[in-house]
């Protein structure tokens, strides 16, 4: 991949995060010219992707510093536990704004450059975009929406811009800290993937002769993606069985957000807990 990336000018959002940072380092090691956008972190251009003016200024600076933009990789994202049965509040608004509308703003600011360069767009979604689990409503909606947005960009600009959506599985990074704090950890509930697999998948999307449409990050991920798309009822049944198994083993006992579900499914919490509101978990 080194030859294909040498001299390529790549903009990476969320470059101060675990996966965005690792991808930025790998791109630079391969000879690419990289500009990273993030709220915080060393060596990045400060940018709040929730703000159109901030995005415009940051993209303009990146374009000037790199001499143009050949590709954009979207890693920026947040994850907070939310219930589909609670009225949407700040946690939902922030998640959708960062995970879905943020990439939209950055893409819009870069699209003319990408068309001129016959460039690439890589959207990093999630397996939760197609394999839905409880207590991740806002994140799931935002990532499924991101995949739909990528499809829309492909439909309008695919003649000149290669568009790929990447679907990582569970990777233990700080994006899960809020869920862990609420007693909703996925540790031990699913097989984790390696950050290196995500990085390699993104680099593949950037260097393939024909841009892949959708990419999972492991053999198991490819199987799960195919199963959820072609056998959705079966996939739902598997997820429900795993949920019941985990609840029977006491998983989520300490999670207020799970109390109502535990009661509905016959697994009452050891100590009754009031039904949470969105504001309590934001």
UniProtKB/TrEMBL annotation:
GO cellular component: membrane
Name of the molecule in the record: Alcohol dehydrogenase
Keyword Oxidoreductase on entry: yes
Annotated Pfam families: adh_short
Organism: Candidatus Aeolococcus gillhamiae
InterPro entries: NAD(P)-bd_dom_sf (IPR036291), Sc_DH/Rdtase_CS (IPR020904), SDR_fam (IPR002347)
Keywords per UniProt: Oxidoreductase
Family affiliation: Belongs to the short-chain dehydrogenases/reductases (SDR) family.
GO MF annotation, one: oxidoreductase activity
CDD domains per record: SDR_c (cd05233)
Keyword Isomerase attributed: no
């Amino acid at each position: 991949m080194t030859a294909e990336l040498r001299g390529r000018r790549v903009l990476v959002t969320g470059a101060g995060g675990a996966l965005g940072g690792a991808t930025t380092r790998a791109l630079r090691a391969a000879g690419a010219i990289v500009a990273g956008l993030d709220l915080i972190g060393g060596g990045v251009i400060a940018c709040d992707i929730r703000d159109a003016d901030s995005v415009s200024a940051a993209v303009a600076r990146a374009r000037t510093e790199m001499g143009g933009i050949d590709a954009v990789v979207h890693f920026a994202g947040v994850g907070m536990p939310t219930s589909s049965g609670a009225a949407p509040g700040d946690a939902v608004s922030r998640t959708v704004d960062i995970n879905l509308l943020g990439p939209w703003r950055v893409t819009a600011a870069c699209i003319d450059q990408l068309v001129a360069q016959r460039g690439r767009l890589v959207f990093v979604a999630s397996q939760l975009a197609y394999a839905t689990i409880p207590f991740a409503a806002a994140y799931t909606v935002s990532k499924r929406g991101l995949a739909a947005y990528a499809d829309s960009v492909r439909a309008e600009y695919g003649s000149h811009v290669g568009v790929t959506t990447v679907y990582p599985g569970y990777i233990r990074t700080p994006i899960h800290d809020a869920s862990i704090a609420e007693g909703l950890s996925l540790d031990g509930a699913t097989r984790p993937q390696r950050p290196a697999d995500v990085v390699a998948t993104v680099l593949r999307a950037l260097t393939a002769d024909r841009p892949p449409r959708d990419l999972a990050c492991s053999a198991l991920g490819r199987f799960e993606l195919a199963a959820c798309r072609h056998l959705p009822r079966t996939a739902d049944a598997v997820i429900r069985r795993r949920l019941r198994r985990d609840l029977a083993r006491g998983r989520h006992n300490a999670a207020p957000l799970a109390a109502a579900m535990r009661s509905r499914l016959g697994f009452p919490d050891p100590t009754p807990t009031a039904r949470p509101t969105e504001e309590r978990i934001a």
